[in-house]
Amino acid sequence: MEMLDLRIIICVFQLLLLGVHCQIDFDQNQNLNQNPRGNPPVPAQQPQQQRPAQGTQFDIIFDDEPVQASPSCVTPTQRQGLCKALAQCAIVYSEIPSLLDNPCQRENNQLGVCCPLETGENRKPPPPGVGTNGVLNKPPPPNVPIPQISEQQLRQAIDVSIRQVQERQQNINSIIFIDGERQQNINSIIFIDGQTIKPGTPSAAHQRFFTTTNAILDKGNDAQVNLQTTLTLSNDFNLSPLQGTFALPRFSASGTAIAKTCPQTSQCREGYPYRTMDGSCNNRNNPDWGKAATAYQRILPPKYGDGINSPRVQANGAPLPSPRLVSSSYVPDDNRPYNNLTLMLMQWSQFVDHDLTHTPIVKGVNNTGIACCQSGQHVDPSTRHPDCFPIDIPGNDRFYSNFRQQCMEFVRSLPAPRRECNFGPREQLDQITHYLDGSNVYGSSDDRARTLREFVGGRLSVQNSQVTRGRDLLPGNPGECSDSTRQKFCFRAGDLRVNEQTELAVMHTVWMREHNRVARILETMNPNWNDETLYQEARRIVVAELEHITYNEYLPLILGAEFMRTFDLTPKTSGHTKLYNSKIDPSITNEFASAAFRFGHTLVQGIIQEINQFGAVRSSTSFAKTQFAPFSLYDSFDSLVRGLATQECQKFDNFVTDALTNHLFEGGSQFGLDLVSLNLQRARDHGIPPYNDFREVCGFKRAQSWADMATFMQPSVVEQLQRVYPSVDEVDLFAGGIGETPLDGAILGPTFVCLVGDQFARLRRGDRFFYEEVSARFTEAQLDQIRKVSLARVICDNSDEITVIQPLVFQQASFLNKRVPCNSPTVGGIDFNLWRSRGGGGRGGGGGGGQGGGGGGGGRGGGGRARGQRRQ
């Protein structure tokens, strides 16, 4: 029998009995026992030059090895290309069938696919509203009458507003509780605070999601004074909503009694070569761009009901339809999964989101949660907290009427100090760094970062005990939540939301292990580096990996290859880039955080599956039961990872699992919250303009009628929207966005591609430390290695016993994306020999100099020992 026939028989056996795809055509000439870590051998050439790390206070020097160029090739469509591993050519996945028909030979005689070079030819011009760099052109403000306000009148308005804010706080603090009942002090007036949220309820879990610090709440209090002054000026001078939005920002708070409430410019350390923990000093001219605890920027000005503060209403002043009515009528539950995409796509969306956005909400006395409803019923607005904005539940609601619920808890987002120290509409705060910088792994402040570090060998702290069976898990956090019977606790990570659901905690664990794996390798190779240098250099590599996976594997699926190519968002095949533009503000846009990037909620499965090593379902759990209860991770880490890489995710559309729309944060209750309702209410809270406005700013034709909406939507979707919204100009951005038909080659429709693409273009071009830029300080040879990283590689290196995986993890294993052994070159991997330093560990940032010892490699993670679904 021919050897190839025998391999085919073995392959079929593995597929049928083990659920494992094998690879014949690409790896049949390789001995998989050689180079088991999946790293290419160290180039034999001698170093050509030495390149020191930039920055006068640091003297780490890496030899800039010659880059072993990938062989050139020609694609079936006669485009010039380079021969790459499948995982390095993710952007052309739709073309892979034809590429696989003509495999090319990579370096070291390995087979690969001919990855087309991005030459810029035949690119479509950007839409009228989008710049050539992918960043939206913000429209100029309208001309409005500027009121004549003297300095004395401004001072008087400030004095009045300070007293009003003080009285407001006193009134909130005047509540006393007797036998658990709310009582009002005799001297309290105007309003009283609602009862605090009861522990163990869905609302308590939801408000836990918005955990914040006293420092952040202090910023909110500062912003409240400015906001109250804006309202006072608007009332005193009888200003229109347009004047409140566009005229009052002409007046500065600098030099006034409330100047201290303005943001203070960060002081930067000259020559510091690493990202700061809070994101400051990335842009040398605007050091607070992208910094944690700063306001979101906006693409379009807000549309508040009063132009300044009250949530959005219809253009005629009438209330908008209830978010719950929109959700229950327009966003039903239906099982509509992709047959080619895995649940890992959904999970990466959330993981990236938690690196970019975290909006705090207003809190009560002593940082307690605020209750805006009473036993599911509305209360008199005069007796509740002024930042309550509860959601009305229709009396005939198919689900909540069974539990006599007519009021859903909702508290407004904390106001943010205005970035320009002026007066104007309410803004909101991003309490984490705005950059794609691994803040969810490392934290967004020096204080948070210190609580996560081991301070030995540059490593992050871990939990390693009898309960974890000797494997490294995230540090325990019993104060968050716990399973005291089995001595299992929630976890602590860079982002406070790590325990929100089990699979999110899985991703946090993977990247904690990856950092420690990299730190151990660097320590072996550079024994003279001290803890700080090892930590910062490992962090620099890990952040580059996160960025590369996001732009190489994830965004091409979300935005489509055409958008990526048009705006130069595709990672280059070699060399550095010069795309950084210090004039581009990378800060997260309010529209992205409050609506567009919430598209991932439509991808969520209602059932979480654990998959064993044979490809069989080990267990299935309701998604709602995993929230703030990530305890299965202690025993089922690999099974959960396999589930993410195997289970299908739901399609991007206007269908969302009822695990989110009826049972969000349900816990032990009979019902939970509705995430779609919360999304719609949050955007109204932030004054986000309606969907039609964003069609226009993105360069598309504004819909004048419901028939016009059908240019981007199916007629059935338009009919559903028409049943709940009074006109095309009142449709909420989130509702309109999830109703759009996806663009060819993309998951999202045109408006969300525009808004999400704008944000990732800003993060690419407005980040001085983006991994492909010269200023990121990777040598060309190091950068070439980082481009070989894949999410599959990271999973293999940091799981416990996973041995096979498909190279493109966001996509289902298939004939084109076969599962291969983790040590297959197809999965990629970094050769860390290129991080052997010739210089010191750095003054102020690292240890002594000298040659490092030891070799690099892909070594397995999980603390140095291990390597590496939903909706019913």
List the helices and strands and how they pair.
Layout: H1 3-18, E1 49-52, E2 61-64, E3 72-74, E4 80-84, H2 96-100, E5 104-105, E6 111-116, H3 151-173, E7 175-178, E8 181-184, H4 202-208, H5 214-236, H6 241-246, E9 294-295, H7 323-330, E10 337-342, H8 343-356, E11 391-392, E12 407-408, E13 429-430, H9 439-442, H10 446-452, E14 482-483, E15 488-489, H11 502-525, H12 531-559, H13 561-566, H14 590-594, E16 607-611, E17 617-622, H15 633-646, E18 648-650, H16 658-661, H17 675-685, H18 691-697, H19 706-709, H20 715-724, H21 733-739, H22 750-765, H23 780-786, H24 791-798, E19 804-805, E20 820-821
Helix pairs in contact: 3-5, 7-17, 7-20, 8-11, 8-15, 11-12, 11-15, 11-24
Word description of this protein:
- By secondary structure, the protein is an alpha+beta fold.
- The chain has a domain at 154-193 and 204-280 and 291-316 and 360-391 and 412-429.
- The protein is 30% helix and 8% strand.
- It has 24 helices and 20 strands.
- The strands form 9 sheets. The chain has a 4-stranded antiparallel sheet with strand order 3-4-6-5. Strands 1-2 form a two-stranded antiparallel sheet.
- Strand 7 and strand 8 form a beta hairpin.
- Helix 7 crosses helix 17, helix 8 crosses helix 15 (633-646) and helix 11 (502-525) packs across helix 12.
- The protein is globular and about 75 Å long.
- The two termini are 46 Å apart.
